[in-house]
Amino acid sequence: MKNTVNVSPEIIHIPEKPSFLPHLQPTVNMLAAVIEPKDANTLVRKLNHIAPLENLQHVKRVQKKCIDGGKPQLSLLLSVAAETDVVVLELVKSYQLSTFITRVCKYAATSKEEWEEQCKLWPTSYHPPTYNISGITGFSEEDSQSIFGFMRHTIDLATSSVVGQVVNAAVIVDPSTKQVIASACDQVISSASLANEVSKERSCSNYLKNLNQQRLLLDRSIGEFKHIINNVACVHPWRWALQSSGCWHPLRHAAIVAIEYSAARDRQLFPDYKALCHLESDIQTNGHSSESLRPYLCTGCDIYLAWEPCAMCAMALVHQRVRRIFFSSANSNAGALGSVHRLQGERSLNHHYGVFRVLLPEVVKLVDSKTAGSG
């Protein structure tokens, strides 16, 4: 059954953490009490010691309201309702507090709008991203058209490598010059196996039909298109372990190969370069780099992918210091940037990039990987 809903070209920012609709935000029941303002500091200090809100650090302990006549009223969170212990109850008794149960949002807000909704239940804190990645707050018309153009180029690569099949494709771009640095498709299948795939497809009488399916993959049942996207490496990152013939390479995903090509390009353009660390030091010390110096990995570059990358590729792009990742189709089987995991929200990493999904009407989706099954 075809999905004929028309969509306009769109660029969607994928935040570090999933957003929740106001009525769907998970909540936690808390034991609270109205307190005298003069006791607030003492009670907060004691509760932070005996009942710290370790998993709710975004939640503010005190709520301030204005009641009749503008008189301030303070309410204090005592503990998680299900975890209230004797020490907290003794404190309640000591200060003769009248307790009640209230709800607070379980997770920190990922946007200002979400934070405003959270505060309707109980005050929380909101910390916007501290890094400056252009596009998070929107793109200019010129930048949008450039992004759409590079994504169309990426989709063309992904759908033209093997007749009747779709693979992942990666295009690395220098956004300052809008030039393609490197591009690649999945190379996980051996050349012999690849030739066999092509041979099978060319022997089919519906060759042209399959070629058209490559370019306009519609949302249909799993049975219809599972065979077409069966070779997308990031959708099936563990498929190599299931191949008895050993023809499936576990590492040569499109993003990894594109990184390899980018490094080879740098070596060719800068054959006399001495040490990579000198460039990084120069950038940090002087705030700029010379055009004669070799780029440090893929620092500041954007990468376009037909499919949301798996965890291996997403982590490789962290190490490469890319600035932004754009992908077309979600990967609900193994996606690491929103569908299954959100690597961009892992604060322990020493580099973070912006993540965006690009929707193009003429592509009509490359079929979300849920149609690919578990592979």
Question: What would you say this structure looks like, in words?
Answer:
Helix content is 29%, strand content 17%. It contains 10 helices and 10 strands. The protein is elongated, with a radius of gyration of 26 Å.
Termini, distance in Å?
A: 23 Å
Largest sheet, spatial ordering of strands:
1-10-9-8-6-7
Choose one word for the global shape. elongated
The overall average pLDDT, rounded, is 80
Order of helices and strands: EEHEEHEHHEEHHHHHEHEE
Tell me the β content.
Answer: 15-25%
C-alpha Rg (nearest Å)? 26 Å
- Low-confidence segments: 1-5, 194-224, 367-375
* Oligomeric state as shown: single chain
Number of strands: 10
Level of helix content? 25-40%
- Output the structural class: alpha+beta
Main sheet makeup: 6 strands, mixed
H/I helix tally: 10
Output the keywords.
29% helix; 10 strands; 375 residues; alpha+beta; four-stranded antiparallel β-sheet; 10 helices; elongated; disordered N terminus; single chain; six-stranded mixed β-sheet
Quick synopsis:
The protein has 375 residues and is of the alpha+beta class. 29% of the residues lie in helices and 17% in strands.
Write the layout of secondary structure elements.
Blueprint lengths: L9 E4 L13 E9 L4 H11 L11 E5 L5 E9 L5 H9 L4 E7 L6 H7 L22 H19 L9 E6 L4 E7 L5 H12 L4 H9 L6 H4 L28 H16 L6 H11 L15 E6 L3 H9 L4 E6 L24 E6 L16
